[in-house]
Amino acid sequence: MLFCNVREVKRISVWDILVKYQSAFAGGLAVTFQLAIIVWLAGLCFGTVLGILGAKWKLAVGVPSQILSFILSGIPILVFLFWLHYPLQTMLGLVVDPFVTAAFTLAIINAIAVADVLRRVLSEFPEQYVTAGKVCGMSAWQILLHIQLPILLRQTVPVLLMIQVNMLQATLFASLISVPEIFRVAQQINAQIYKPVEIYTALGILFLAICLPLNGLALLLKSRFTRDFSEK
Amino acid sequence: MLKGVNLKKSFHGHNILNGVDLELEPGQISVIIGPSGSGKTTLLKVLAMLDLPESGSIHVDDWSMEFPISQGKKLQPPWPKVTVVFQQLFLWPHLTLRQNLTLPVVLLYGNEKQNSEKIEELVSLFDMSGFIDRYPNQASLGQRQRVALARALLLRPKYLLLDEITSSLDVEQVAIILTHLKKLAQSGIGILTVTHLLHFAQEAADRVVFMADGQIIEKGGKEVLINPMQERVKRFLSVIESAS
Assuming Cys at both sites, which of A66, A74, A77, A106 could form a disulfide with A39, CB separation 3.0 to 4.6 Å? Predict the structure, then answer.
């Protein structure tokens, strides 16, 4: 599918590229989504656990995860990915599938980002709202369900959604260690027909179609639920 | 009866409560007065078991608890039989003021018709209809104070502890709340209130407690406000009177 007659592709629009290479793009998108889903699930699950533990045991878990987050924030994703893929595997004498390396790297970054958000929100949760529930005779479960969770979800869901959109975009870096995701596919098509403007515009449109609704949802949730709570 | 016996509490080595004994009978309004930092709010928190004393005991009718709590014993405070309205109010910010009133009542007593009638009665009594569907941050401090007090009243407490709840109310609202507190006391609710308003104390109190330096310096009837025995109380009252 990637190999075409050069004369055929002289005049070709973005739409033509999307149609002509649809199966290649679909294959790339499938890999991108597989990677994103693994990164989302692993990051959200481990990040949630790490965030809760970090808020509960500040010294034992919270501070180390904060230090890790601080260090990781100073390392570009690409450098971290390359380091785990090339030098680390050489040092350990391992050969790991690039897809696994990419999923592992991005999941770590996602988990640390999610944990950061949750730890901060949980640590800063105003205890007086719980106290008010207690003196009103509410059980711990009722306080969690009716007071803590609604306030926490309003504060965290839009931010977490934005982080997940960023992680989806970060899956593009996996192409640089040969994971056959959508960016890699676009590069391969471009290598065959050399139409960078049309191909990367097509890629941009695909990402817009995926990311814009997610960003829109995050903004909607943010505007709907994260009101300014501060009192006069 | 709500009773605290020999309650002691310290913070960073500083004694906040230094062996306080206090009793509150059902149907009685006790008013705590005293200078800032005398331990009034801490005493309310300790009696409400939100802040546990280092030693002493708390008794609520047939329920009692010795402090420090012996190993294996679990603290199960009698909330909302004893409930508190704090100066900071602590209304839940994600709920409207009406939802702040209804949530605990519905969770405790179910969605009974008499609850919604009682809510409407309090909304009308405290003149809250104009703002009851706003969120807490859209209401003034005085409006929030009325809602916080109404929320506590809806829980059918037997002992109601109030921490400076009239601090942001105008004279008319203070008068309404005073009338309502007296009605509540007549219905058998014991009310313990901290206030800095001497005229409120004079109007409301069956018993007056003066606190300073974590101790009860003098307690008695309204005469404590008119003709105190202790020099410390006289000094405090004269400062207040000259300031007003």
Answer: A106
Angle among Cα A119, A121, A126 to the nearest 5 degrees reads 125
**Measured CA distances, B19 to A204, B77, B170, B221, B237 (Å):** 72, 21, 36, 21, 24
Chain region(s) in chain B for CATH 3.40.50.300:
2-81+157-243
For residue A170, give Cα distances in angstroms to A37, A66, A176. Answer: 13, 22, 11
Predicted local distance difference test score (pLDDT) of residue A1: 47
**Is pLDDT of A98 > 60?**
yes
Summarize pLDDT for B66-83 with one digit per residue, the tens. Answer: 999 888 888 888 899 999
Interface of B with A (CB under 8 A): 48, 50, 77, 79-80, 82-84, 86, 88, 90-94, 103-104, 107-108, 135-137, 140-141, 144, 151-152, 155
- Residues of B whose CB is below 8 A from A231: 93, 136-137, 141, 144
Band (A8; pLDDT cuts 50, 70, 90): low
For B201-223, letters b (16+ CB in 10 Å) and e give bebbbbbbbbbbebbbbbbeebe
Query: What local confidence, expressed as pLDDT, does residue B73 receive?
Result: 83
What would be the CATH architecture of the domain defined by B2-81+157-243? 3-Layer(aba) Sandwich (3.40)
A163 CA: distance to closest CA in chain B (Å): 24
Whether the predicted model's global pTM rises above the 0.90 cut: no
For residue range B132-185, list pLDDT tens digits in order.
999 999 998 888 988 999 999 999 899 999 998 887 778 888 888 888 899 889
Q: State ipTM.
A: 0.85
Which residue out of A136, A141, A149 would a mutagenesis test of the B interface target, given it has the greatest number of B Cβ atoms within 10 Å?
Answer: A136
Query: Is B48 within 8 Å of A135 when comparing Cβ atoms?
Result: yes
Give the model's pLDDT for residue A230: 62
- Give chain B's length: 244
> pLDDT value at position B86?
86
- Chosen from B92, B149, B151 to mutate, greatest number of chain A CBs within 10 A: B92
